[in-house]
Amino acid sequence: MTDQSTDPRPLTGEPVALDLLNTRWTHGGEPVDLFAGAFGLTRVEGLTLWLRSTGLAGRFRADAATLVHLMTAREALARAVADPADESARDLIDAVLEHGRIRVTLTAEGAGERPEFADPAWGPAWTAARNYLDLLGAGADRIRACASQDCTLRFLDTSPDGALVRCPAAGCGDRAQAARHNARPRVR
Q1: What are the helix (H) ranges across 58-185?
Q2: Which distant-in-sequence residues (6+ apart) come within 8 Å of 125 by Cβ?
Q3: How many CB atoms lie within 10 A of CB 156?
Q4: pLDDT above 50 for 1
Q5: Distance from CA of residue 109 to its chain's centroid?
Q6: Residues 118-131: pLDDT tens digits?
Q7: What's the predicted TM-score (pTM) here?
Q8: Are 74 and 21 in contact (CB under 8 A)?
Q9: Which residues contact 1 (CB under 8 A, 6 or more apart)?
Q10: For residues 39 and 157, is the Cβ–Cβ distance under 8 A?
Q11: Which of 41, 37, 42 is nearest to 6 (CA)?
Q12: 176 pLDDT exceeds 50?
């Protein structure tokens, strides 16, 4: 059991699209879903926690409609990330994107953009789908699944050489490093 302010997920702070995917993870070998009552949180409390951790809490409401739309986007993103060639996954992403648009604006700093939604409950889902497009534009090959056998998390490899294979969650990289260290022959 956790309180409503503590995010129980092992990896947070990834771009919004990947952070949404990381609302499902494994804990003690069992699947966990932040939006399905993980760690004693209700579904809407899990949504509230996710909105807060991604910086979207002030812009969107945590309610049942938002949760349904966000879970739709999560499923679409999971399919698209797992198989970028899957046309039906692309159609699902497009269906989410149909619920919002970018309004070009003039700001004091120059050109700006502002998202608009006919139904604000689609806002977080649309934001995650739009972020996925941005990630693809920056380099689809940098979107990674953790190579750790017990990990289901996704991360954006921001290393200079793009060679990370394990997520930065506490444990994954540490366990791999410890295993390599323990496998080295001992010199006496």
Answers
A1: 64-82, 87-97, 123-139, 172-183
A2: 66, 69, 70, 72, 73, 96, 99
A3: 17
A4: no
A5: 30
A6: 999 999 999 999 99
A7: 0.88
A8: yes
A9: 39, 40
A10: no
A11: 41
A12: no
